[in-house]
Specification:
heterodimer, A: alpha/beta, Rossmann fold, 10 helices, 8 strands, about 10% strand, B: about 325 residues, alpha/beta, 2 domains, seven-stranded mixed beta sheet, five-stranded mixed beta sheet
């Protein structure tokens, strides 16, 4: 089992930083390729929310289940997807994570039990309950984690999932990435309680914690504690991680509804800056941190080149994998 | 001859058969455990398999079907019950957006081997929100297999096939058939999904039917036989896969087609069957295709009103006579 101490070793902190830098660079590349016309449709970038994915992943076992949302690039990479496979998916290449049949909103890394990115708000919370239920019935010690936005807390599936998880004492973690806005609207203006996720947990007699979602160490610690409780048979936990997206909701949204002073304040609390400061406090010099950023950018630049060079998906793949036999035949 | 069994008993029997052979099969739904289901279609399961295999849930259709999906993606073979098929609307996101698209959207990374069973159809006077035949809702969504048995033996065989299928299957259990009786199936009965069955051979007209409309079509065929008309009744058994070859083959012999479907005429499954025959069997036809379907109104409560809007043997026989007159 993963041993999580309150203050990680410097080597661990460096690994966390490297992963977060890799996600940041991938999201920047996704933005740039979108602007270059090579990413079609839409993207929901997670720049600014990297600490939630990386901190949580560091506290989980490799075979634990992770369920993410349409803003899920960070979770795919945190659970082991390569930037190249993610970018190739966004760029409609045959080498994409899902063979370019899913796109930005549906990144999935089944080999690592990252079982999907769900684009219908809140849909995956009951699904995560099912994975947790399955783990219990199969007698494994796996937990399931559902990551979701603050907006999902006002949809029925959230409440059905929390109730079912509570009455069945399922080994599931509900991790809300509260970035303060449901799409273009401040979450507090449309929610009856101050904390959209943690504030609902008491109604289901579930333990809940509001944490600094831009502090990767705080996330890692909270998820480790919740996962340990779940594995011990003590049921679900709600974690509300306060964070902020650096971009608008999706590619077409400049995010003008957010006050500039609020944006500036959160940019100062960029999770990469927060971790860099922690690293410096632990004796790591800035050039060593810069080197990690440079390495991440180089890796992603190579990933972009590889994705650009990859072929589009073969047309006949539109007619594969409807059914488990690999085909699409619906009639005799 | 073995004792006859009811369609209702066949539901539980089919599930139990598979639960005995595969410990990954688990059931969940409202009142399905100790209460044995509001339609008594899970009788005996809780007693035989216990609370770790048969789970009572809250009234939370999204949680039921969502949890079934998560369990199916991670190694179990869940059988979820949605009490009335009308309630599929409460979890339609899972049925239409999540379950049938997961495998495709992930480029084949994930399979979702689950069964959603549900009591479907009218005839019992439950009114507009508990009587609908909604198989056409599911028929509009690529990625779902759809079974709707008409006999107890078929129920067992198709239930076994549905549970063993690596694809998601919607199992429509017709409420008006629950008390009907039929021959029990042989031991370990499994039918293929998507193989239609001729219930009554005939040479003059093909009646294509499903679930409750199979006995309706058979009754019409008996009525027509008295007039010297020999109708063939083809039970589709499944809508997906659709046994179009069986329909086309029958029409090639009879040259006339009447489709009998309980769901509304507007958007009903019979329209797809008709379009296939129009495209691929047109030159076999001696008369226009006719569809006897539910009326395009919400299901009324009073028995005489309900009978006025669902297919009846008399209406089917009339349609056949018009088809014969058209030639």
């Amino acid at each position: 089992m993963t041993v999580v101490t309150e203050e990680p070793r410097v080597e661990e902190l460096l690994e966390l930083y490297e992963k977060m830098a890799l996600i940041r660079a991938t999201e920047k590349a996704a933005f740039d390729q979108f602007m270059a016309g090579l990413v079609k449709g839409t993207t929901h970038l997670a720049s600014g929310q990297e600490a939630v994915a990386v901190g949580a992943s560091a506290a989980l076992e490799p075979d634990d289940y992770v369920f993410a949302t349409y803003r899920g690039h960070h979770h795919a990479i945190a659970r082991g997807a390569s930037p190249e496979a993610c970018l190739a998916e966004l760029m409609s290449r045959a080498t994409g994570l899902c063979g370019a049949k899913g796109g930005s909103m549906h990144l999935t890394v089944a080999d690592h039990n990252m079982l999907g990115s769900y684009a219908i708000v809140g849909a995956h919370l009951p699904i995560a309950c099912g994975a947790a239920w399955s783990a219990r019935l199969r007698g494994t010690s796996q937990v399931a984690v559902a990551f979701f936005g603050d907006g999902a807390t006002n949809i029925g599936a959230f409440h059905e999932a929390l109730n079912l998880a509570a009455v069945w004492r399922l080994p599931v973690l509900f991790v809300c990435e509260n970035n303060l806005y449901m799409e273009y609207t401040s979450i507090k203006t449309v929610t009856a309680v101050a904390q959209p996720a943690a504030g609902r947990a008491p109604a289901y007699q579930l333990p809940a914690e509001v944490i600094d979602g831009n502090d990767v160490v705080a996330v890692r610690q909270a998820v480790a504690s919740a996962a340990a409780r779940a594995r011990a048979g003590d049921g679900p936990t709600v974690i509300e991680a306060l964070t902020y997206r650096h971009h608008g909701h999706s590619r077409t949204d400049p995010g003008k509804y957010r006050p500039q002073e609020e944006v500036d304040a959160w940019l100062k609390r960029d999770p990469l800056l927060v971790l860099a400061e922690r690293l410096r406090d632990r004796g790591v010099d800035q050039p060593a941190i810069d080197a990690l950023d440079t390495r991440a950018r180089e890796q992603v630049a190579a990933a972009v080149e590889a994705a650009r060079a990859a072929p589009p998906p073969p047309e006949d793949s539109a007619f594969t994998d409807v059914w488990a036999d690999g085909g699409a035949q619906w009639r005799t | 001859m073995a004792d006859l069994i009811t369609y209702r008993e066949a539901v539980a029997s089919g599930i139990a058969q598979e639960m005995r052979r595969d410990e990954r099969v688990v059931c969940l739904g409202e009142d399905i455990g100790a209460a044995e289901g509001v339609f008594k279609t899970t009788t005996g399961l809780f007693a035989e398999f216990g609370p770790e295999r048969v789970w009572d849930t809250p009234i939370s259709e999204q949680a039921i079907v969502g949890a079934a999906m998560g369990a199916a993606m991670t190694g179990l073979r869940p059988v979820a019950e949605i009490m009335f098929s009308d309630f599929l609307a409460c979890c339609w996101d899972y049925v239409a957006n999540e379950i049938p698209k997961m495998r495709y959207m992930t480029g084949g990374q994930v399979t979702v081997p689950l069964v959603v069973r549900t009591a479907n159809g009218g005839g019992l006077g439950f009114g507009a929100q508990h009587s609908q035949a909604v198989e056409n809702w599911a028929f509009a969504v690529p990625g779902l297999k759809i079974a709707a048995p008409s006999t107890p033996a078929d129920m067992v065989g198709l239930m076994a096939a549905a549970i063993r299928s690596d694809d998601p299957v919607l199992m429509f259990e017709h409420k008006a058939l629950l008390a009907t009786k039929g021959e029990p199936p042989p031991a370990d009965h499994v039918l293929p999904l998507g193989a239609a069955e001729v219930r009554r051979p005939g040479g003059d007209v093909t009646l294509v039917a499903l679930a409750s409309t199979v006995p309706t079509a058979l009754a019409a065929a008996e009525e027509l036989a008295a007039d010297g008309v020999d109708a063939e009744v083809l039970d589709l058994r499944c809508l997906i896969p659709l046994d179009a070859r069986a329909v086309l083959g029958s029409v090639a012999r009879t040259s006339r087609l009447v489709i009998v479907e309980e769901n509304p005429y507007q958007g009903g499954w019979g329209a797809t069957v008709a379009s296939i025959v129009a495209e691929e069997g047109f030159y076999d036809l001696d008369a226009p295709i006719r569809r006897v379907a539910g009326a395009c109104v919400p299901l009324p409560f009073a028995a005489n009103l309900e009978q006025a809007v669902v297919p009846t043997a008399a209406r089917v026989a009339d349609a056949v006579r018009q088809t014969l007159d058209a030639a």
